[in-house]
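seq as requested:
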Amino acid sequence: MKALMLLVVLGVAGLSAQTKSDEALIRDSRAQSNAAIARHDAPGIAGFWMDDIHITTSTSAQATGIATNRDRMSQQFNRRPDTVYVRTPSTIDVFAAWAVASERGEWVGRWTEPDGAMEIRGTYLAQWRKVDGRWLIQSELYVPTQCKGSKYCSQRP
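struct tokens:
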């Protein structure tokens, strides 16, 4: 009985350690994705996405697939050369048995419109999937909660 109890405790401890390791991997990937955005490296951003990535933007625009979303980011960088987005995770929950994780946090975007600098921010939710040992984003949803500094903020584009 003691041997069985020890195996159960070790098994739970091992699962917990794996979850923490997976959480750290996801946080590191998010930081690298933020760095790719800061460099305006659309292929670098796309390197963290699954082939069927689905993104709902703060303006409620939706797009599925790497090519479509990568091109959308490239167009934004061309249109607004000082664009920067930073996503800061507050909670990452890993369900190791299904190789899936939920990331929740806050995001902020900044760029210059013709009438001046602006900042938009809000909350986000991302679904990560572990594929061949690597965590990739399957879906992201961005919800704006504040916008200031430009008439851009007066109504949804």
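The first strand starts at residue 49 and ends at 56.
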